[in-house]
Amino acid sequence: MKIAVLGGGHGCYAAAADLSEAGHEVRLWRRDAAALQPVVDSGAIVLKDAAGAREVPLALASADIGRVLAGAALIVIPSPATAQADMARAMAPHLASGQVVFLAPGTFGSWVMARAVRESGNRADVLWAETGTLPYLARKHGEREVNVTVRAVRLPTGVYPGRRAPEVLAVIGAAYPSVHGCGDALSGALMNAGPVIHPPLMVMNAAPLEHFDRWDIHNEGTQPAVRAVTDRLDQERIAVREALGYGAPHYPLADHYHSDRWMYGDAHKQLVKSGDWREKIDLHTHRYITEDTELGLAFLASVARWSGTEAPVAHGLLAIAGGFLGRDLRQGERTLDALGLARLGREALLAQLHEGS
Q1: Looking at the whole model, is its pTM more than 0.70?
Q2: What is the structure's pLDDT at 266?
Q3: For the chain, N or C: smaller number of CB within 10 Å?
Q4: CA-based torsion, 166, 73, 124, 65: positive or negative
């Protein structure tokens, strides 16, 4: 299958190499042409995992997004939600009917990007989907080298428009057999693990993050008090899903720490053992704040508010993070209010997500 991978981050390089090694015709786009040049020159990414390191050739690496998107059946975007608006504008002139765009994860980006593409004037019948986490726990070790610690074994995926789910899931499943349907785009967004894992870790580790040059929030930073808050926040996420009629499995985050039933299987110990997440984290600029808190947690809190679901932990974490960031995160750009959807009732919104616009 012809697959386009968009972005230059850890998950993007992991996806490009992994999917190419699986036999797909993979083309990689990165806006930063200079940073992409080592991949362009070599024609390959060095993929490292438990099997060792090896060169994986790509069909194309280019800063020309039109070349990368042309003819792709599947477009994989493992980039942060903060990049979605710019990506949608860059993609819009080149998207064609029948292409499937897979956000991993999405933060309701499937709806946001679809709207942006339509507003650009492109009326192609493009299909969108988003899942609950990156398909990889990965970190780049060099300018064209990526280390994959764990691959996801379950990827619950929501589709926009929901009525097209069978054909969309068939396309994505050819690349990621671990994908399974979980309903519409809102259900997919409410599977996103980042806004549940990362805001408590950032808020409750704020002092050591500012004090130490490098800190592993998944090791020393994950203590019983932090886990207790994370579990309560995840219970709020599940309560929101249930209030909207979305069924199990909800992938409770407790399984990430205590069993092999979660999206990555039993991965937390491997994540810590790798040492790749001992890093410098800036409280103002790291994606755990800009993506998972300012966008993802604000989105979750807004859906809770709209659905009438109690979510004191979500609202409290937003207030504290907003305290050190110096702004009110309840007014974020990814809230239902900002998206113009809070005025809709439950049935009207779910119908729009099912039918598409």
Answers
A1: yes
A2: 59
A3: C
A4: positive
pLDDT at 272 over 70: no
Two domains, one topology: 2-189 and 194-244+281-344: no
**Structure tokens belonging to residue 255:** 């399984």
Q: Where are the domains of the chain?
A: 2-189, 194-244+281-344
Residue located via tokens 């890093």: 279
Check whether domain 194-244+281-344 has CATH 1.10.1040.10, yes or no: yes
136-142 vs 179-184, strand pairing mode: unpaired
Helix (H/G/I), strand (E/B), else coil: 357: coil
Report how far residue 275's alpha carbon sits from residue 278's, in angstroms, rounded to the nearest whole number. 6
Would you tell me how many other CB atoms lie within 10 Å of the CB of residue 97?
10
Q: Which CATH class is domain 2-189?
A: alpha beta
Query: Tell me, what's the pLDDT at 214?
Result: 86
Tens digit of each residue's pLDDT (9 = 90 or more) over 184-227? 999 999 999 999 999 999 999 999 999 999 888 888 888 999 99
